[in-house]
């Protein structure tokens, strides 16, 4: 199912919103295959600046990066997050 979502994402011309980004990061984390890693990193690199303060998006991105084994990038997002909550800490620990 997630692979079909990625196919659709590749065809879309619009940028995903914060809710969609959070879901896509979670899907990438769960798959964690080469395609998911490539898509997840691309989404993170192209993420609009206004989502970089959204705790839900950041938590999902950290979880994804931890699942990819990219602890350094996940920690960088953790440190930059000004609105940490219990889910933020869980994303770092559980990922």
Automatic annotation (TrEMBL):
**Mind listing the GO biological process terms from this record?**
RNA modification
Q: Which InterPro entries match?
A: PPR_At4g14850-like_plant, TPR-like_helical_dom_sf
Q: Which domain of life is it from?
A: Eukaryota
What are this entry's molecular-function GO terms? RNA binding
Instruction: Output this protein's name.
Output: Pentatricopeptide repeat-containing protein
């Amino acid at each position: 199912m997630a692979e079909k979502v990625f196919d659709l994402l590749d065809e879309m011309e619009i940028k995903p919103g914060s809710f969609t980004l959070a879901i896509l990061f979670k899907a990438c984390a769960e798959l964690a295959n080469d395609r998911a890693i490539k898509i997840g990193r691309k989404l993170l690199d192209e993420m609009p600046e206004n989502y970089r303060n959204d705790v839900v998006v950041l938590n999902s991105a950290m979880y994804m990066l931890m699942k990819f084994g990219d602890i350094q990038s996940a920690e960088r997002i953790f440190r930059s997050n000004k609105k940490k909550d219990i889910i933020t800490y869980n994303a770092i620990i559980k990922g």
